Amino acid sequence: MSGVSLSGMEGPEAPIVRDPRIEAQVALLRTLRFPVLLVVSIVVIWQLVIWVFAVPSFVAPSPLNVAKALWADAEMIARALGYTLRSTLLGMAVSLWLALSLAALFTVSDLLSRALLPLIVILRTAPILAIAPLLILIFGRGIGTSVAVVVMVTFFPIMVNAARGFRATPGNALELMHVAGATWAQSFNKVRLPFAIPYIFTGVRMAAAGAVLAAMLAEWLTGAPGLGTLILEASSFRNLPRMWAGVVVSMAAAGLFFAATVRIEQRLMR
Amino acid sequence: MTGIVIEDVSKSFTIGKGSVQALSDITVTLPPGSFTALIGPSGCGKSTLLRLIADVLPPTSGTIRIGDKTPDTARRAHEIGFVFQDATLLPWRNVLQNIRLPAEVAGIPAVRDPRYLIDLVGLKGFEEARPSQLSGGMQQRVAIARALSLDPKVLLMDEPFGALDEITRQRMNMELLRIWKETGTTAVLVTHSIAEAVFMADTVLVLAARPGRIAQSIAIDLPRPRTLAMMRDPAFNGFENAVRAALFGDEVEAA
To answer: pTM for the complete prediction?
Structure first.
């Protein structure tokens, strides 16, 4: 009996093989179909309205003028975009590191979590506009303040979700590690952290949506040479096509940034 | 080979402001290389007893010895293998990587070749498969292979086949007996099934609830290797009835 390997008898329970990569791409195309159609329609209608009603360009620029400005100022906009994206990415990286470290600390000590969490919530609810002078004093008028503002805006959702994820580890998995003689760090790295990844990415996605905006907000306060400053200056010089070009690029950047986090999550979850 | 000696072990849990006695004065010796089944009603503390042996929980009083070691030292010396009711595989690791986990944690090379273990549990060809691609029975075999990877002196199993259908379960039991014989470990199996307990064990410990205690210890005097044909044997039925009587007491007569 035991000589007959049972694996051959598992016929009806044969493994199901799927290619999640192709599935993900099909799903992506399917979700993008309607938004793209909508945006194209809006742009076309907008252009038509401006032509038909002869709207002067200082009221609302036409998509064509915006496209021209985008082309003419491409280098300037690209440089500004580079600056803003750099602060966004740097801020997100610092934020992720800080949020995960704190959430990990909270799993170790309930007392610490009860002591620190209210402070963090207060920091979170402080209007950035009000504490801007303080931030500029500490981090200067350059990328430092941008990174700090991005961290302040993105840190909270990542930390809250990560903390929830670290607490949601299956009990048996932790017992398994315990019986294997694992240290706290081993259990954390091999079990807690991987099991928490869907939670962490929920937080990252929520944070990513506002991260680019946060970086631009910082530029409005400090005047650092990013997209935010470009938009503000174009607006004060009444250069509406350039302003809108900046707005469109920033929105596209935020959208792509969000999409990138979704892709990274899909990669990790495979 | 290593035996397990349990002396005057009690365990109580604090629930809210009260305290619940889960186990009371358990004293039993499991000889080296033996196969013991723990059976009893829900809440009789059989899983708790298993977790006390594995040093997942500390006893409130009493002592447990695994060979000449405390459970804590035995655990740190990688002498304990544990199989849960659900396979508890890490879903992002494939079969081979899951089986290598204990060795990785211990920071030593696997004592038993993982590929040999995969062969032993009948999963050759599935080394690279993810847990989600395996059936429940196959996942549980991976869990057993993983528990054996550091060649533990004792193998503790908490209803390992409870979630499987009757046919798969019977096959897995045959496989488990073969593996147990080949590895020579001291095995403890928590189960809900009277037939399974009698079929597998040298000794069936029948536990009673509130507080959890050993109601009776029944030696199963059937020859090994055990075969499916034995289950029709009157002697087998006799042992089943003995366990049933110990579990239900007077209820058997009354019905």
So the answer is: 0.78
Q: What is the ipTM of this complex?
A: 0.86
For residue B81, the chain A residue with the least C-alpha distance is: A179
Contacts of B82 in chain A (CB under 8 A): 175-176, 179
Mean pLDDT of the B14-37 span: 88
- Number of domains observed in the structure of chain A: 2
Give the model's pLDDT for residue B206.
93
CB-based contact, B199 to chain A, within 8 Å: no
In this structure, is residue A1 part of a structural domain?
no
Give the tens place of pLDDT for each residue, A24-46: 777 777 777 787 888 888 888 88
Domain match, A198 and A143 both: yes
As a whole number of angstroms, the distance between CA A80 and CA A83 comes to 5
Return the bridge partners of B6, or none: B28, B64
- Chain A to chain B, count of Cβ pairs less than 8 Å apart? 76
Q: Are B84 and A172 in contact (CB under 8 A)?
A: yes
**Residues in A 70-89 with any Cβ partner in B closer than 8 A:** none
User: Are B228 and A1 within 8 A, CB to CB?
Assistant: yes
Cis peptide before A12 (omega within 30 of 0): no
- Answer yes or no: are the C-beta atoms of B146 and B99 closer than 8 Å: yes
3-state secondary structure of B27: strand
Residues of chain B with Cβ-Cβ distance to A15 below 8 Å are 126, 129, 133-135
Domain around A214: 63-268
Confirm or reject contact between B125 and chain A (CB < 8 A). Answer: yes
